[in-house]
Amino acid sequence: MEQAQRARAFAKLHKLGQPLLLPNAWDVASAVAIADAGAKAIATTSAGMAWALGVPDGAGLGAKRATAVIARIVAAIDVPVSADIEAGYEDVAATVTAVLQAGAVGVNIEDRRDESGLYEPTEQADRLAAGRAATRGIPFWINARTDVFLTDPRRRC
Length: 157
Fold this sequence. Notes:
Layout: H1 3-12, E1 24-25, H2 28-36, E2 42-44, H3 46-52, H4 62-76, E3 81-84, H5 92-102, E4 106-110, E5 112-114, E6 117-118, H6 121-134, E7 141-145, H7 148-151
Parallel strand pairs: 1-2, 2-3, 3-4, 4-7
Antiparallel strand pairs: 5-6
């Protein structure tokens, strides 16, 4: 299935009152198993991809490694893939461009800078705008994810 078809299929899965469930894959084998089980779309997990490659979650994965895994997953299955790209790695726009070229139809972009906390809201809005601009009008979903519950010192799990 070509990327435009995947994007249209992904859009059709978003229905009011019917939450879209996206099982997470971390490599080709898990993506194939999830697709074979009947998933209509799949997301990737950055932590799972990192751990499967033997590197730590966070800075260990990086845009180059992440997009290489994403490209292999997209090539192996015929359902839309939305990719977890953490906070966009080194450059949000460049990472979105690479993920788009890898064939994914969307990304999750976190607002957590690193262990020091969250990006300021205006800075995060600028980062999301840069990601959107990098799509050059191609149908592509950007999920802005917040990690406020992970970074708020008053809330510990």
